[in-house]
């Protein structure tokens, strides 16, 4: 009773990275609350899926395995979560802020009248004093997310409704195995009892998956370009440097909006969150909406004509200069060594 629950997304038999990141966070929250962590996996051909989640410190995994449950459709997944949460009464329920989580989370929270904070970037446990009503609350989930275009950080609490529900952006939390030997229980969900036949009204006949060739989320080195790069043609310099040093090309939103790079390369609040070993920011000013997506990079090199550019505050090394001069020198240097 009153545990932390994480809805785990499945793609071709694999639990999504964002779900593993949430299990890692869920384990920490459960430890703080001295309760258990439970995972829910809904899909088809899930044999052995528990082995993917248990190492993240899961005490119980609920599995709903039925061929009508994969690929994801809204109604059956909603029915399973709503019924399970009504029975188990979690104090916290988390899911990824993905297209699935953004569809499923609000439906579940509305059915349970629980409220939901979307797109969180941090979750912590804290207390709250409601001075007006003279009430004290212990161990609430502080749901933290940027608001007003990233200009403020909002902390949202939900003192009276349960579960406290949140969706969390991909990549903002680290995934960390607790122990490969971690052993939890497995509970199979009887799909016929949880899902009404009319919930299966939508049938997926065929799926065409567009496989992205871009993988900036997991790249160890990123050469990112901003509006200061000046043109799509100049971005070729970034691509060349990235190829030489084994990295991927990223971009600021201004560079994407200007058509210098594709949207899938956008880093920041409305793009991807990255944490590479090396981030080379070329002609990027360093507005908060951009740095929100790269500030956890292990090392940052900023190349900018403006010695006072805000990105420099995040940089380990600052090169004050024009990318048209600096990048060819770097490429030459790396090629020679
Ligand atoms: P600019 O701010 O125009 O900076 C260009 C930089 O290039 C300057 O510092 C300049 O000195 C330098 N420069 C110019 N010429 C050269 C040269 N030849 N050589 C070297 N340096 C040069 N932004 C994101 O990046 N990601 C997001 O996800 C994102 N989400 C947003 C969400 C919302 C709701 C809003 C309101 C904004 C968002 N933005 C996002 C936009 C953000 O506020 C900034 O506008 C954007 O990051 C600026 O991009 P930039 O640094 O490339 O451009």
UniProtKB/TrEMBL annotation:
Query: How is the cofactor bound, as the UniProt entry phrases it?
Result: Binds 1 FAD per dimer.
Q: Which UniProt keywords apply?
A: Electron transport, FAD, Flavoprotein, Transport
Among the GO biological process terms of this entry, one is: fatty acid beta-oxidation using acyl-CoA dehydrogenase
Per the UniProt record, the source organism is Marinifilum breve
Ranges for domain Electron transfer flavoprotein alpha/beta-subunit N-terminal come to 4-204
Name the PROSITE patterns on file: ETF_ALPHA (PS00696)
A Pfam family reported for this protein in Swiss-Prot or TrEMBL: ETF
Protein name as it appears in the record: Electron transfer flavoprotein subunit alpha
Q: Which InterPro entries match?
A: DHS-like_NAD/FAD-binding_dom (IPR029035), ETF_a/b_N (IPR014730), ETF_a/FixB (IPR001308), ETF_alpha_N (IPR033947), ETF_asu_C (IPR014731), ETF_asu_C_CS (IPR018206), Rossmann-like_a/b/a_fold (IPR014729)
């Amino acid at each position: 009773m009153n545990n932390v629950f994480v809805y785990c997304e499945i793609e071709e038999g694999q639990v999504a990275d964002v779900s593993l990141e949430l299990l890692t966070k869920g384990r920490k929250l459960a430890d703080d609350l001295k309760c258990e962590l439970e995972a829910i996996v809904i899909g088809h051909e899930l044999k052995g899926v528990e082995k993917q989640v248990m190492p993240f410190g899961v005490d119980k995994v609920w599995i709903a395995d039925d061929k009508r449950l994969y690929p994801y459709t809204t109604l059956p997944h909603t029915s399973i979560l709503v019924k399970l949460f009504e029975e188990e009464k979690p104090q916290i329920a988390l899911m990824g802020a993905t297209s699935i989580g953004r569809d499923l989370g609000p439906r579940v929270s509305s059915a349970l009248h629980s409220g939901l904070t979307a797109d969180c970037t941090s979750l912590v446990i804290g207390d709250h004093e409601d001075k007006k009503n003279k009430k004290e609350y212990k161990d609430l989930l502080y749901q933290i997310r940027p608001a007003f275009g990233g200009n403020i950080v909002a902390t949202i609490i939900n003192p009276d409704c349960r579960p406290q529900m949140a969706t969390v952006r991909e990549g903002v939390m680290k995934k960390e195995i607790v122990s490969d030997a971690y052993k939890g229980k497995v509970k199979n969900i009887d799909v016929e009892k949880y899902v009404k036949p009319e919930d299966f009204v939508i049938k997926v006949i065929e799926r065409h998956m567009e496989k992205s060739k871009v993988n900036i989320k997991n790249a160890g080195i990123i050469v990112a370009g901003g509006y200061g790069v000046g043109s799509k043609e100049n971005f070729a310099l970034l691509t060349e440097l990235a190829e030489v040093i084994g990295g991927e090309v990223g971009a600021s939103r201004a560079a994407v909006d200007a058509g210098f790079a594709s949207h899938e390369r956008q880093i920041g609040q409305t793009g991807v969150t990255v944490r590479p070993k090396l981030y080379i920011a070329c002609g990027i000013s360093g507005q908060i909406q951009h740095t929100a997506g790269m500030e956890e990079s292990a090392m940052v090199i900023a190349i900018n004509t403006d010695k006072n550019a805000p990105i420099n505050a995040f940089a380990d090394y600052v090169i004050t200069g024009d990318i048209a001069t600096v990048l060819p020198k770097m490429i030459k240097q790396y090629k020679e060594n």
